[in-house]
Design a protein that fits this description.
There is one protein chain. By secondary structure, the protein is α/β, with parallel strands linked by helices. The chain is built from 10 helices and 15 strands. The strands form 3 sheets. It has a 6-stranded antiparallel beta sheet, with helices on one face. Helix 3 runs parallel beside helix 9 (about 280-300) and helix 5 (about 175-220) crosses helix 7. The model has no long low-confidence stretch (mean pLDDT about 95).
């Protein structure tokens, strides 16, 4: 998969940008604060319908304007070309077009564009709380099959409804409250178990890939462990919800289920979050991204567009060289405030200056 042309209109600090992109490694260069990450954010948005920076949609619309447009031509490995356009609005609904046909649902775009984004914030995949690791494995599920997005959204919806019932109960139970909770528990047991099963299957497939990717980047085996094994899976979600109902009513929140689960990460048998060095943690986070990239490539038959956003500045020279040496085949955009080393095998250089295109070579 290759992005052959990208157009931005009123996106972040870009009034308008049009650029043709080459296959292979594209270096996006420029001083800090010029808009390099804003450009790569647009590519990530087309793949996931959200910002990898975790900001709301209107934050990506240029100040003083009502809407932003991201338009890209995507060439698949079988030769098909697809024109994708996303319009983000401050007031109305966002609109997505594929080959000039409006999609009924934005999530129907999932799978048309695939990207793998590495960013400095990825350190939080290891150092941060469980939410980031849940998002990482769920994003991997969606990248492998867009149908998992609907399942994830349904899990979120059911949890919100169950929580609303718990909050309305005010810590007290009744026949009506019990009946409503029974209904939501049955629904959550269904969709939550399906999401848990999908996560477990993907975690088992990812574990050896993460270990291999870590070894590639670190230059030595790190004995990486990755496991998704929440306690509720031992008894079943229905039984776990029944056992936690009293506590849930007291706290007015659902305390058990896939919305609260974690993915356990270890380095050398020790908890990576508390025992790994920052260099090991950053290498593990990169390995996690690279593992999903490899798995999606194998499963779909084509490589997602790889985006390395200002990652090299966070790595020592050895790890940076190892990452560049293991950039997968396909298209990769690498942003940097400094020239990239020769090991990157750059085919195109793009310079960004104050939200505008400088020289292209």
């Amino acid at each position: 998969m290759i992005i052959t042309r990208l157009e931005l209109v009123d996106w972040r600090n870009y009034a308008r940008l049009e650029i043709a992109l080459a296959p292979g490694v594209v270096a996006v260069l420029g001083d800090n604060g010029q808009g390099k990450t804003n450009l790569t954010e647009a590519l990530g948005y087309l793949a996931t319908m959200r910002s990898f920076r975790g900001v709301p949609g209107d934050a990506m619309i240029r100040d003083g304007t009502a809407e932003a447009i991201v338009r890209a031509t995507v060439r698949h490995d079988d030769g098909r070309e697809v024109l994708v356009e996303a319009r983000l609005s401050r007031e109305g609904r966002n609109v997505i077009h594929v080959n000039r046909q409006r999609l009924a649902r934005a999530r129907d775009l999932l799978g048309v564009v695939r990207t793998t984004v590495f960013s400095p914030d990825d350190l939080e995949l290891v150092k941060g709380g469980p939410q980031g690791r849940r998002d990482w494995i769920d994003d991997g599920l969606v990248a492998l099959s867009a149908r998992h997005d609907a399942l994830r959204l349904e899990v979120d919806r059911v949890v919100r409804q169950r929580n609303a019932t718990l909050k309305a109960a005010g810590g007290r139970t009744s026949d009506a409250v019990g009946s409503m909770l029974d209904a939501w528990d049955a629904k959550y047991a269904d969709v939550g178990t399906r999401l848990g099963d999908a996560r477990d299957d993907l975690a088992r497939r990812l574990a050896p890939e993460v270990d291999r990717a870590y070894a590639d980047l670190a230059g030595a085996a790190g004995t990486i462990g990755l496991r998704y094994d929440p306690e509720w899976r031992a008894v079943g979600l229905a039984a776990a919800l029944a056992a936690s109902r009293g506590e849930d009513l007291r706290r007015a929140v659902t305390t058990v289920g896939p919305h609260r689960d974690d993915v356990a990460l270890t380095v050398g048998g020790l908890d990576a979050r508390t025992h790994a060095s920052q260099g090991e943690q950053r290498t593990l986070a990169l390995g996690m991204r690279l593992a999903v990239h490899r798995l999606v490539t194998d499963a779909t038959g084509e490589s997602p567009v790889l985006v390395l956003d200002d990652v090299l500045s966070e790595l020592d020279e050895r790890r940076a060289a190892a990452l560049l040496a293991h950039v997968p085949a396909g298209q990769a955009l690498i942003t940097s405030a400094s020239p990239l080393p020769q090991v990157a095998h750059i085919v195109q250089r793009v310079r960004i200056v104050s939200g505008a295109l400088g020289e292209v070579g």
